[in-house]
Every structure is written in structure tokens, then in C-alpha cells.
Amino acid sequence: MEITKLSTKGQIVIPDSIRSGIKVGTSFIVSKQEGLIILKEVSGLTKEEMKEMKELDKIWKEIDSGKCESYSKDEFFKKIRMLENH
Fold first, then answer.
1. What share of the chain is helix, strand, coil (3-state, %, to 5)?
2. Number of helices followed by number of strands (H, E) in the chain
3. Mean pLDDT, all residues of the chain
4. pLDDT over 90 (residue 68)
5. Closest CA to 53 of 15, 33, 10, 24
6. Sequence-ordered list of residues with C-beta below 8 angstroms from that of 44, at least 6 positions apart, any chain
7. Would you list the domain boundaries of the chain?
8. I want to staple 71 with a disulfide (CB 3.0 to 4.6 A). Which of 3, 24, 27, 75 is the partner?
9. What does the alpha-carbon distance between residue 74 and residue 4 come to, in Å, rounded to a whole number?
10. Residue 32: which of 55, 1, 9, 6 has the closest Cα?
């Protein structure tokens, strides 16, 4: 058993001894049941699902590097309304 922490970005480091043999980029289903968080490895994704996963990975990298903008709920909806009117 090992201990890890949740970061402010919602990230959890899987200890090296547990992630041994798991390839970088491996997909997981995540579920929570009564305080138990379960990661289940996913295989056999379709090409479309893989494309979506790669796009999500790109988005997360942009978020992590600070390239994305943050809005309050009101600012977000104001921006959406502006985009709809153009």
C-alpha cells in the first residue's frame, strides 16, 4: 500500500510500484464507490474514440501550460451570447 495526494488540478500520481508495466497513454475508466476510487484499464477503443482521447490530451496540455482562459459562470454565458450574435 502506498499513499498519494490529489493536486489542486484534480491529478493523482499513481506510485511507480503500482504503475509498473502500464504504458504512458493507457486509458482508464474511473469510478467511485463509497470512498473507493477504481481505475479500470480500457482497451479496444475505436479510431474515433482514440481521436477524441488525443484531442482531450491536447486540450489538457494547453490547460496545464496556461494557454486557456478561465471565466466565471456569468462571463462564460456572456461570451457564448456574443458568439451566437456574430
1. 40, 20, 40
2. 3, 2
3. 86
4. no
5. 24
6. none
7. 16-84
8. 75
9. 35
10. 6
Rounded to whole angstroms, the Cα distance separating 80 from 18 reads 43
Spatial distance between the Cα atoms of 18 and 1, rounded to a whole number of angstroms: 9
Identity of residue 26? T
Nearest Cα neighbor of 27 from 42, 38, 39, 37 is: 42
One-letter identity of residue 57? D
Residue 53 burial by Cβ neighbours in a 10 Å radius (0-12, 13-18, 19+): middle
Taking the model in full, what pTM does it have? Answer: 0.46
Question: How crowded is residue 46: how many other Cβ atoms within 10 Å of its Cβ?
Answer: 8
To the nearest whole percent, how much of the chain has pLDDT over 90? 23
